[in-house]
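Annual report, structural modelling task.

Input specification for the NAP complex:
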Amino acid sequence: MIGPNGPTVGAIWAQNPQGIIGKDGTIPWHVPEDLRFFSSTTTGHPVIMGRRTWESFPPRFRPLPGRPNIVVTSRPETVAGDGDNVWTAASYAQALELALSLLDDPNGEIWAIGGTRIWADALAHEALPLTRAYVTTVDLAVEGDTVAPRLDDTWRQRELADWAESSKGPRFRMDEYTRR
Ligand SMILES: NC(=O)c1ccc[n+]([C@@H]2O[C@H](COP(=O)([O-])OP(=O)(O)OC[C@H]3O[C@@H](n4cnc5c(N)ncnc54)[C@H](OP(=O)(O)O)[C@@H]3O)[C@@H](O)[C@H]2O)c1
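The model returned the following structure:
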């Protein structure tokens, strides 16, 4: 689905209007429509995440099925043994190398699924920086301890889905951000 010019790295997250994405190791809302969007976007592609994001998934839901899971951690023993289809890496750069080696399509997609340092490293990566971000905004006033990256004005915004009400209550919208 993404361009014909080699592999790409995208980011995907859900935030509230203030940019909050997490609280106490979890996501402070439940929007099943967004979980389905996350799943359909990332399934079939390697996903790179930090250890706390890995730990935020209930053990029965990890590794996320149908996609190679790569967890960045200095403590691989906390991840090992959780099952097949999960790798650890000591840095974002190492995780990206691994993800590239796992692609079977030379124009394949890799998804950086959080948290904060993973996205910061992905944005700053020289050879293969982020060029796409899918951002769901959930219209809830919540407290949190983890925030989304700020995308500066080099990014172009395109609406994917206008405000709609989740079956679980909160309003949400979806945007795509791209840059060359
Ligand atoms: N709303 C959303 O879309 C969304 C998405 C993702 C996560 N979240 C939430 O965000 C929170 C987790 O995110 P977080 O930012 O706190 O943590 P995180 O990035 O998931 O994990 C942090 C840990 O990962 C390792 N790590 C991450 N980046 C690294 C890097 N570049 N180089 C080396 N090691 C790195 C380190 O592990 P070690 O300590 O093992 O060395 C670090 O302590 C949770 O609340 C989760 O639910 C929300």
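The radius of gyration is 16 Å.
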